């Protein structure tokens, strides 16, 4: 925890500094939601096809989902999503003529959430 997934249009690949975004995002989650730095995990998933309304061209999407253990206030969640959107403005540079649609949400992980880590040496 937190479990973070970033879905983005593949056309943004060159203009999206994913390593720097992840580092800044993890720092923000620690600062805003009191997460532990070593617990932050982000997975990026590029999407090949993007459609917005009737248009299949000229659009790109980035959506960040942050799964946190329950207990954060709605205010904390709102602050975190707003700050994530600001980070996207900084780290995603869309191509000219491309409309960027960015969004973020924080959700509570289900009480059934469990995890394990394996470190092989």
UniProtKB/TrEMBL annotation:
Keyword Isomerase: yes
CDD domains: CHMI (cd00580)
Record keywords, A-Z: Isomerase
Keyword Isomerase attributed: yes
Molecular function, one GO term: 5-carboxymethyl-2-hydroxymuconate delta-isomerase activity
Record InterPro entries: 5-COMe_2-OHmuconate_Isoase (IPR004220), Tautomerase/MIF_sf (IPR014347)
Bilayer-spanning residue ranges: none
Pfam families linked: CHMI
SUPFAM superfamilies, sorted: Tautomerase/MIF
PANTHER family, A to Z: 4-HYDROXYPHENYLACETATE CATABOLISM PROTEIN
Protein name stated in the entry: 5-carboxymethyl-2-hydroxymuconate Delta-isomerase
Protein's organism: Streptomyces phaeolivaceus
């Amino acid at each position: 925890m937190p479990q973070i997934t970033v879905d983005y249009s593949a056309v943004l690949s060159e203009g999206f500094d994913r390593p720097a975004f992840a580092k800044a995002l993890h720092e923000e989650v620690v600062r805003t939601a009191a997460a532990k730095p070593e617990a932050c995990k982000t997975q990026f998933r590029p999407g090949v096809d993007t459609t917005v309304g009737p248009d299949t061209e000229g659009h790109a999407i980035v959506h960040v989902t942050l799964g946190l253990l329950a207990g954060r206030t709605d205010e904390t969640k709102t602050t975190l999503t707003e700050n994530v959107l600001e980070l996207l403005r900084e780290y995603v540079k869309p191509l000219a003529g491309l409309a960027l649609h960015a969004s973020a949400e924080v959700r509570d992980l289900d009480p059934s959430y469990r995890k394990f880590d394996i470190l092989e040496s």
